[in-house]
Design goal:
Oligomer: single chain
Number of strands: 10
CATH architecture: 3-Layer(aba) Sandwich
Shape: globular
CATH class: Alpha Beta
Organism: Rubrivivax albus
Helix content: 25-40%
Number of domains: 1
InterPro entries: AAA+_ATPase, ABC_transp_ATP-bind, ABC_transporter-like_ATP-bd, ABC_transporter-like_CS, Oligopep_ABC_C, P-loop_NTPase
Keywords: ATP-binding, Cell membrane, Membrane, Nucleotide-binding, Transport
CATH topology: Rossmann fold
Order of helices and strands: EEEHHEHHHHEHEHEEHHHEEH
Protein name: ABC transporter ATP-binding protein
Largest sheet: 8 strands, mixed
Distance between the termini: 47 Å
Pfam families: ABC_tran, oligo_HPY
Bound molecules: iron/sulfur cluster, magnesium ion
Structural class: alpha/beta
């Protein structure tokens, strides 16, 4: 049976200049093995921070993270090493995350050799297999990153992550820098890999249109808080939170279906000084006096559908 890939992050206090920013504030997220969770919000909402905590790149300053039910403290050193390899992150800009002085063979082959997954003598054969898996001709493995197109570099970044045989990929805006037609190819690759390798994904994007086709479940964040979470089909059919509704009205391909909602207006406030009460109130068409004072809590509005809005909790909103 599949293990449960579970990661819970409660809050993170990251130092930003002299102020403590709660980049992620009381977020609780469990990802099941084999699931694809889309994590969506505008830039500055804390989704990258959450993704980096899940991938083990940032340590949360509070809260709990679990992998297959265990915190790092509850793992043996061998289990910790295994968990570190099992969760890999794929970044937005492969040009800046690929070492320009290394050949593709070393970019992809170094970590599996270091971690003893393949012997040094078998590295070239292994790299060839991994490159084929991501749709790159192994004949290119002697080349350097700058000799590839943006789409090919994205595939090299994916190959590097896959080379250590992860079960869970955290993709942070992994297709955002690519042309739309190339985006579709790379998204198709992610989905083919999911089927072939039984992968679990946390797919982070500012673009609901991108996560729509590949997510089983979608989580919406606003200024460090989770405001809505639902099975993907349900979220796109029946968005509950005014922020989600506004985001949907902003996606050109979805706007006609959601024309009863007003598109998002105004700038996202600074995470250094979030508005009190419901963080969304300055931009919300339904804000009432209670929204400026009281923080709405997540309530289940339908099975598996959570929304944090006073309109849903029968509270003091509009
Ligand atoms: Fe809008 Fe109030 Fe709901 Fe926040 S709690 S989303 S301000 S109605
Ligand atoms: Mg980001």
């Amino acid at each position: 049976p599949l293990g449960t890939a579970e990661r819970v992050a409660n809050w993170l206090g990251a130092r930003h200049r002299e102020q403590v920013v709660h980049a992620v504030d009381e977020v609780s997220l469990t990802v099941q093995a084999g699931e694809v969770v889309g994590l969506v919000g505008e830039s500055g909402c804390g989704k990258s921070t959450l993704g980096r905590m899940v991938a083990g790149i940032h340590a949360p300053s509070g809260g709990t993270m679990r992998w297959q039910g265990r915190t790092a403290a509850e793992m043996t050193p061998a289990q910790r090493r295994e968990a570190t390899l099992a969760v890999q992150m794929i970044f937005q800009d492969p040009m800046s995350s690929l070492n320009p002085r290394l050949r593709v063979a070393d970019i992809v082959g170094e970590a599996p050799v270091v971690h003893g997954l393949v012997p040094k003598a078998g590295m070239a054969d292994y790299v060839a297999q991994v490159l084929e898996r991501v749709g790159l001709d192994p004949v290119y493995m002697r080349r350097y990153p700058h000799q590839f197109s943006g789409g090919q570099r994205a595939r090299i970044g994916i190959a590097r992550a896959l080379a250590v045989r992860p079960t869970f990929l955290v993709c942070d805006e992994s297709v955002a820098a690519l042309d739309v037609s190339i985006q579709a190819q790379v998204l198709n690759l992610f989905m083919a890999l999911r089927a072939d390798l039984n992968l679990t994904y946390l797919f982070i994007s500012h673009d609901l249109g991108v996560v729509r086709h590949l997510s089983d479940r979608v989580v919406i964040m606003y200024l460090g808080r989770m405001v809505e979470a639902a099975p993907a089909a349900e979220l796109f059919r029946q968005p509950r939170h005014p922020y989600t509704q506004a985001l949907l009205a902003n996606v050109p391909s979805l706007a006609s279906r959601h024309k009863r909602f007003a598109p998002l207006k105004g700038e996202i406030p600074s995470p250094l000084d979030p508005p009190p009460g419901c963080h969304f109130h300055p931009r919300c068409p339904h804000a009432g006096p209670g929204c400026r004072q009281e923080r709405p809590v997540l309530v289940e509005t339908a099975p598996g559908h959570l929304s944090a809005c006073h309109l849903d909790s029968g509270g003091t909103g509009a």
